[in-house]
């Protein structure tokens, strides 16, 4: 169950996300908005970033927001949203994600989401089905483009699309039961309706954890000690552990995590996962993976075979001490400052299965075992990052996530923090100190795009995130990287966004990256003149039936810009 603390932490996040939103749009009239409005707008970006899984394309996220108030405040445009706040369409993955948001100013532990909120959005869904030329005549093009695409998906399907409607709020409880009206709504539009409130939202609020410690007693025949060589100071362990012990070691009770002689297992049926143990997990939060139910079914149907059927859990720790117990048949491991870097899905599933029924811990989990690898890398080494990267590389994970724990990324974060800039390596993160007032907040992926642009390839900055954090990574972040230039690069980026906002032109990420490219090339124009000349380049470049973004993504457009600016 969500708590008042979750509510307060979310508000802190939303304050930072509003500031991030202002940075990406150039909006500066903060005084005109109430605290509640700021948090509601920040709520959009925070949820979309975590649910839509977008590779640092703020333009795409912001363009997905059709909410009337949002577009009036940020762009002075009138968009009738017809009850839908956000429409996110992913052509590549064939996914549609629709969002209706409700932000509550006060926390009420007994308050759950209202089913009626779903029906506010039926006006929008009906328009999708009845789309025609009169809609184009009477509505904003931002809305019309969404309606037209959804009309094609709903009425003239050529592919199989996954369509979900998220009812999002910061209420203490999600809608628990699906009534006949809700089922009817889902059936009419052939969409899945998913509630999202504080109990779920709290799970992907990245909280930078204090050291988390736990102890466990294991039989020696269930334990193997490992070290690289006899002189190595770091000892690691591979252990066969009962699933109820996994719950105890990773639960949100400091007392239980260190109670190695727990006789009453029923105490574990009331605990929750301590989510901060997953802060360094590169996968982040996955709300409903298709693998989770399979893990639970395996525990229920084959508890004694779970050890063989599951890949296990990988943990890194600051220190691990081992003590031989009387009789020399068991050992006590005291694990200090640990994080789960692989097996987060398994860990969440075990905890979810435990919460499904209070008897599951004694009937199933104490009979199921899992492989636990506990690594204690040498201090100062890059091994923690390598363990996280290599143990996760078998399955599909964003390359940027795999690099988020690397030593150089952590060094960038620390350096920028000293200059009042929050460097956000992970989704949901808002800086090393949530109480600190940062001048700028920037995602690691966006900074990578900046580096790609100034390296000479602005046209590749918005469509090659994978390459930036894969084959180009060493050149951009290590070999040719000047850490001392970073604060100014980031400040220039946000200044250019503001100057575009003040101009008569519509800004976009690729335009900002081109401006940085030109400044890096030695162009000495002031930002206003630079923007005017870049826009002249865009207008004078001939490319039939091509959007501005795609036009600027062509290498010959960069050549055209070089020619106009005499580079």
Strand order of the largest sheet: 5-9-8-10-7-6
CATH topology of the largest domain: Restriction Endonuclease
Domain count: the total is 3
Strand content: 5-15%
CATH class of the largest domain: Alpha Beta
Instruction: Give the N-to-C terminal Cα separation.
Output: 60 Å
- Write the CATH architecture name of the largest domain: 3-Layer(aba) Sandwich
Give the helix proportion (percent range). 40-55%
What integer is the average pLDDT?
86
Radius of gyration: 26 Å
Number of strands: 12
Helices, by number, come to 27
Quaternary structure:
single chain
Contiguous uncertain segments of 5+ residues:
none
Outline:
The chain has 567 residues and is of the alpha/beta class.
Model description:
The protein is α/β, with parallel strands linked by helices. It has 3 domains: 4-204, Restriction Endonuclease (3-Layer(aba) Sandwich); 214-392, no CATH class; 406-564, no CATH class. Helices cover 44% and strands 15% of the residues. It is built from 27 helices and 12 strands. The protein has helices at 4-25, 35-52, 58-63, 68-75, 116-120, 122-129, 133-138, 141-155, 180-189, 198-201, 243-249, 254-257, 291-301, 306-309, 344-356, 360-363, 383-392, 399-403, 407-418, 444-454, 465-468, 473-479, 486-502, 509-520, 527-540, 548-552, 555-564; strands at residues 86-90, 95-102, 162-169, 192-196, 214-219, 223-226, 236-242, 313-324, 330-342, 369-375, 421-424, 440-443. Helix 1 (4-25) crosses helix 2, helix 13 (291-301) crosses helix 15 (344-356) and helix 24 packs across helix 25 (527-540). The chain is globular and about 85 Å long. The model has no long low-confidence stretch (mean pLDDT 86).
